[in-house]
Write a structure and sequence with these properties.
globular, 179 residues
Length: 179
C-alpha cells in the first residue's frame, strides 16, 4: 500500500508528518490520511510527496524486486497511477530499480498530464503510439502524430495535452527517474 511506503520513507528520513507536509506543500491531515490508507492521493499530491521525500514518483509504489542483471516486468504486474481529474493513466514498463524509467501513458480526450506545466531534473523522450498529443514545453507547443517523438530537458516546465477525439497512447522514457 502506498501509504505504508510513504510512512516508511518518511520515518527513514527522520521526518515528522508536519515536516513532510510542509516540504510537500500539503496539509498534515492529508499526509496522515494517505499514510493510514483513508484517502487516495491525486497524482499531483503524489508528485509533491515524492519530491519532498527525494524519491522518483514510482518508487512510492516499489515492491521488493530482485537485483538481477535482467529484469522482466510482466504486463499484469505493472504498477499503475491514475489521475481522475486529468484523465491520465501511467503504468511503469521498466523495473523499479532501473536508472531509466519507462512509462506507458494513456491520456483521455480533453485531458492533460497536469493542471500546470511541471519540471523535474531529468531528460525525457515521449513517443506517441496512437491518437494525437500536444507537448507543451517551455514557450513551445509541439503537436505529435502516431510515430512522432519529442525529447527535451525535463527541467523545462512541461505537460502533455490531448486535444484529439480519441485516447492518446504513448511511451515516456525518463532518465534519471523523475522526482
Amino acid at each position: 500500500m502506498i501509504g505504508n511506503r510513504i510512512r516508511e520513507v518518511r520515518k527513514a528520513r527522520k521526518l515528522t508528518v508536519r515536516e513532510l507536509a510542509e516540504r510537500a506543500g500539503v496539509s498534515t491531515g492529508l499526509v496522515s490520511q494517505v499514510e493510514r490508507g483513508l484517502t487516495d492521493p491525486s497524482l499531483e499530491t503524489l508528485r509533491r510527496l515524492s519530491a519532498a521525500l527525494g524519491l522518483p514518483l514510482f518508487d512510492l509504489f516499489r515492491q521488493e524486486e530482485a537485483e538481477d542483471e535482467v529484469a522482466v516486468v510482466r504486463r499484469e504486474r505493472r504498477i499503475q497511477v491514475r489521475s481522475p481529474q486529468g484523465g491520465i493513466e501511467y503504468t511503469r514498463v521498466s523495473a523499479g530499480s532501473a536508472r531509466l524509467e519507462v512509462l506507458e501513458g494513456t491520456l483521455e480526450p480533453g485531458g492533460a498530464s497536469s493542471e500546470a506545466r511541471y519540471s523535474h531534473p531529468s531528460e525525457e523522450c515521449v513517443l506517441l503510439l496512437t491518437g494525437s498529443l500536444v507537448v507543451e514545453a517551455g514557450d513551445g507547443r509541439y503537436e505529435l502524430g502516431p510515430g512522432d517523438s519529442c525529447t527535451f530537458d525535463s527541467r523545462v516546465p512541461h505537460r502533455y495535452v490531448n486535444e484529439g477525439e480519441e485516447p492518446a497512447r504513448f511511451l515516456v522514457s525518463v532518465t534519471p527517474p523523475s522526482r
